[in-house]
Every structure is written in structure tokens, then in C-alpha cells.
């Protein structure tokens, strides 16, 4: 579900997270591995302040592993541990728990020194809508948790979920808003399914996607749609649209009179890219920032 964010919503979401911070030791910041910066809340450092934090690059199974490795280094340079994960399988749960425990280690050491039995590390998951918060919480819980609607301000009695004997997780995640005032960010969010595609023109999203794919994953795009030649200049919008039309013709997305139905072609391209039909792709790389 996509939330319509208003300034009031943002203030409330922020307050809710800050209230939860008092209860926990470590924050698990969930990002989309395909678009780590675009799926990040613009005020995250201010909201979380000095709370120890583990970054999870979720949906790693859909992202380009080489680019994800660069993102891990990017976050390490900024003092943050980032772990690529696929929340739909539970393989990395132990790793997540042990990283959280490491981040909490200083406190555990103090407890042991004082002769107190160290308690479980308490964690909170935060992230923008659709990044995979519920999926991860359910995996960690080992069952389906009935989550309250994906709306800030809808609270219920929150509970601790035990993850093994060394970790406890708050069952209600912190929901953050994305950086939607930036159009490029909006394109990446729509292309990956983080926001509803109807919020933007479908053909604009596909144009953005084809341009990015042609520049970074040219051979996968060519192979998928049997395209012989890609545009030499990716800035040439007409040439990129010609590729979209070629894909439309090949997929039988035609209007009466034989013209290409660009909307339909666009939807096909977006759906197939999201489903991984062109392989594992990332739509943002630290290399693009240079
Ligand atoms: P939330 O809004 O943050 O709670 O997101 P959800 O947990 O509802 O996940 C949104 C969509 O992403 C669902 O269709 C999930 O199945 C899917 N999803 C979540 N995590 C992963 C992942 O690691 N890999 C893949 N391929 N899909 C995921």
C-alpha cells in the first residue's frame, strides 16, 4: 500500500519512531538493495541520532551483486555496517541477530562486568513502505504477525518477538517516508514498485528504465527483446523511445492501425524488469554519484 504523505504524517511518523527508540538498543534500517539511496529517508540520521544501526540491503536477490558489493563499501566508508539480505528466505536471520548483538556488545560487556545476566538485544526495523519490513518481521518471528495497516499513526499494543535467545524485535516497524521531491528518485521508486506507478506517467518510468538498462545492462536488454542495436547516445530521447516501440512491436502491444501502444509496452517492460526477467539489476550505483 502506498501512503499519501503529508507534513502531519511525517511529523507523526518521526515522533512514533523516536518514542520507540527509547525501548530499543539497535535500529535495523531496511533499504532496497537496487536503490539504496533512493529508498532511504532523507532525515534518517537526524531521526535516529546516535542509536547503533545495522543497514540491511533487502531484495538482494533482485539486485546486481557487483553493485551491491559497492554499496556495502559505500556504507562502510560512512561508518555503517550493511548486510545484503533476501527477506523472503530466512537464511540470514542468524547473521542479522549476531550483527545486532555485536553492535550492542559494549553494553553487554558492562552487564557481565556488573554480574548481571546479559539480556537480549532489542531491535526495531525501520524503512519506507514496500521495502520488506513485514516480510522480514514475519521471517524473524517464524510466523505471520498480524500487522496493523501500513499507516503512520495507527498504533496498537506493541509486542516483543523473540528471535532465538539473544534478540528481541518490536513487532511494529517504524514507517519512514521516501525522498519523493526528487524526480529521479521518484522514477527509481516507481520502477522498483516502491510507489504506485500511477503516480507518474507510465511511459516516463519505462523511458527512465530503458535508458538505464541500455546504459548499464545493454546486453541483457538486447537479449530479452531481440534488439540488434542500442542507441549510441542515451541522452537521445527519441532513440530510446524507438527502442520502447521496438519492444512493443515484438510483444504485440499494438493499437488499431498498427501503431505501437506505448503505455502497454511500458507496462510490459516495467513488470518484466521488476520480476527479474532481465537478470539481477540495480538502478543506482555509487559509481553514478561521482
Ligand atoms: P513493507 O511495506 O515494508 O512491510 O513491505 P512488505 O514486507 O509488504 O514487502 C513488499 C513486497 O516486497 C512484498 O511483495 C514482498 O514479498 C516483497 N519482498 C520483501 N522482501 C523481499 C526480498 O528480500 N526479495 C524479494 N524478491 N521480494 C521481497
UniProtKB/TrEMBL annotation:
<comment type="similarity">
    <text>Belongs to the TRAFAC class YlqF/YawG GTPase family. MTG1 subfamily.</text>
</comment>
<keyword id="KW-0342">GTP-binding</keyword>
<keyword id="KW-0547">Nucleotide-binding</keyword>
<keyword id="KW-0963">Cytoplasm</keyword>
<dbReference type="Pfam" id="PF01926">
    <property type="entry name" value="MMR_HSR1"/>
</dbReference>
<dbReference type="InterPro" id="IPR030378">
    <property type="entry name" value="G_CP_dom"/>
</dbReference>
<dbReference type="InterPro" id="IPR023179">
    <property type="entry name" value="GTP-bd_ortho_bundle_sf"/>
</dbReference>
<dbReference type="InterPro" id="IPR016478">
    <property type="entry name" value="GTPase_MTG1"/>
</dbReference>
<comment type="function">
    <text>Required for a late step of 50S ribosomal subunit assembly. Has GTPase activity.</text>
</comment>
<protein>
    <recommendedName>
        <fullName>Ribosome biogenesis GTPase A</fullName>
    </recommendedName>
</protein>
<feature type="domain" description="CP-type G">
    <location>
        <begin position="13"/>
        <end position="178"/>
    </location>
</feature>
<dbReference type="InterPro" id="IPR027417">
    <property type="entry name" value="P-loop_NTPase"/>
</dbReference>
<dbReference type="InterPro" id="IPR006073">
    <property type="entry name" value="GTP-bd"/>
</dbReference>
<dbReference type="InterPro" id="IPR019991">
    <property type="entry name" value="GTP-bd_ribosome_bgen"/>
</dbReference>
Amino acid at each position: 500500500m502506498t501512503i499519501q504523505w503529508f507534513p502531519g504524517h511525517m511529523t507523526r511518523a518521526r515522533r512514533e519512531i523516536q518514542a520507540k527508540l527509547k525501548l530499543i538498543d539497535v535500529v535495523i534500517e531496511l533499504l532496497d538493495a537496487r536503490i539504496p539511496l533512493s529508498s532511504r529517508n532523507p532525515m534518517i540520521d537526524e531521526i535516529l541520532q546516535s542509536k547503533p544501526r545495522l543497514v540491511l540491503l533487502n531484495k538482494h536477490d533482485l539486485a546486481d551483486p557487483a553493485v551491491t558489493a559497492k554499496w556495502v563499501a559505500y556504507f562502510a566508508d560512512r561508518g555503517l555496517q550493511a548486510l545484503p539480505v533476501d527477506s523472503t528466505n530466512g537464511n540470514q536471520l542468524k547473521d542479522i541477530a549476531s550483527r545486532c548483538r555485536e553492535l550492542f556488545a559494549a553494553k553487554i560487556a558492562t552487564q557481565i562486568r556488573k554480574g548481571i545476566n546479559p539480556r537480549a538485544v532489542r531491535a526495531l526495523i525501520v524503512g519506507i513502505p514496500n521495502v520488506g519490513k513485514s516480510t522480514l518481521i514475519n521471517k524473524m518471528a517464524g510466523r505471520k504477525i498480524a500487522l496493523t495497516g501500513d499507516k503512520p499513526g495507527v498504533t496498537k499494543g506493541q509486542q516483543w518477538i523473540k528471535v532465538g535467545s539473544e534478540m528481541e524485535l518490536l513487532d511494529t516497524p517504524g514507517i519512514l517516508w521516501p525522498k519523493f521531491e526528487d524526480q529521479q528518485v521518484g522514477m527509481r521508486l516507481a520502477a522498483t514498485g516502491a510507489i504506485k506507478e500511477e503516480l507518474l506517467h507510465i511511459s516516463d518510468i519505462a523511458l527512465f528504465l530503458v535508458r538505464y538498462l541500455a546504459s548499464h545492462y545493454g546486453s541483457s536488454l538486447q537479449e530479452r527483446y531481440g534488439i540488434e542495436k542500442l542507441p549510441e547516445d542515451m541522452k537521445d530521447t527519441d532513440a530510446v523511445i524507438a527502442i520502447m516501440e521496438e519492444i512493443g512491436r515484438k510483444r504485440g502491444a499494438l493499437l488499431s492501425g498498427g501503431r505501437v501502444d506505448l503505455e502497454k509496452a511500458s507496462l510490459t517492460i516495467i513488470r518484466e524488469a521488476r520480476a527479474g526477467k532481465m537478470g539481477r539489476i540495480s538502478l543506482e550505483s555509487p559509481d553514478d554519484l561521482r
